[in-house]
Description:
By secondary structure, the protein is α+β, with helices and mostly antiparallel strands. The chain has 3 domains: 9-108, Butyryl-Coa Dehydrogenase, subunit A, domain 1 (Orthogonal Bundle); 116-211, Butyryl-CoA Dehydrogenase, subunit A, domain 2, CATH 2.40.110.10; 235-385, Butyryl-CoA Dehydrogenase, subunit A, domain 3 (Up-down Bundle). Helices cover 48% and strands 13% of the residues. The protein contains 12 helices and 8 strands. Helix 4 (80-96) packs antiparallel against helix 8 (241-264), helix 9 (278-310) packs antiparallel against helix 10 and helix 10 packs antiparallel against helix 12 (374-385). The mean pLDDT is 95.
Amino acid sequence: MNGHRRPTFEELRQRADALVPRLRERAQAAEIARRVPDETVRELVAAQLFEVQKPAAFGGYELGLVEFVELVAELGRGCGSTAWVYGVTAERAWLLAKFPERAQRDVWDRNPAALITSSITPDGKAVPAEGGYRVTGHWRFVSGIDFADWAVFCTWLPPVAGAGGPVATYVVVPVADCEIIDTWHVAGLAATGSRDARLTDVFVPMHRLAATAELRAGGGPGISLNAAPLFKLPLIAINPYAIVAPALGIATGALEQYMEAARTRNLVRATGTLAQQQLVQLRVAEAAAEIEAARALILQDCREAMATVERGAEVSVDQRIHWRRNQGFAVKLLTAAIDRLFAASGGRGIYLDHYMQRSFRDMHAAASHLGLSWDVTGTMWGQHAMGLPVDNPSY
Length: 395
């Protein structure tokens, strides 16, 4: 694609790790600007990190789910918002790989470095037109739209042959066709720039459409071009890893910084450092165990997902719902770890230039995402496990 030697996963991990100090330095300014800084985007591009889940047919690396999660979490140690935007943007290359080949060529033949944002909650409507549809709709939480070139939205198509209800379908459009609405004034993940986007009677050719149901089952017309097992993963059950991984990074980074500060922070009314206090030792031990447990849950399921598609097996509904449960529970564990550390940070932790209050707000913002909600994912698994109908389609 660009004449560069394909880096190994370890090289990519080292590049991500090298960015962490700069991400920490920029975190407050990024939050004030309410978007990832341009210099950070340039560094991510230069490090070739956006190529990790892109198909090899267009110069990508087709790394597996475990490697993807590890890279996103690495960046999350520095800045949760940056990791969030990176995760969803890099993952959208995987999503586009499921679309018809011509849609992929529209994006990457014109600009091999094109970046993709999305909002995959169904909204809007599509009206048939010659050669495609005209789409009108309003989507929220379009992370990273400030620097993306293309966007994937989920919209409703009219019923097939006039029978049944509307059909949820993904469409690919240039960001230039979007009206960006600056609604992003939020308490957490403020630097993600997850603004609203509106389409008004925008023409989308047929080759830039993909049926939600087909992608949800692990299929898609693009698989005929991109045959790697990675692209046979089911969309809805796998998509949350792009936002679970930043939460893992946020908690890991907060623990690292807390322990580093505790080693040198002297107590006001007692001798010794904060690290010498038994209460602090217990808190960091508990937080570390929660983070390690969450990481183990996440990575074991990622390995299972990849092993399933690599042996050519179909991913079962049982697996998909099991993974969704563990995604929600992992974030529950990570949130508990952050809450534990925040409570032990004292008055210093509430200053706006302090990493801990940002980690606390970012983690709770991540946990509020419907895709990571324990109330949603736990209920879903409980219904399925006890033989009841699952009343939520997010698996």
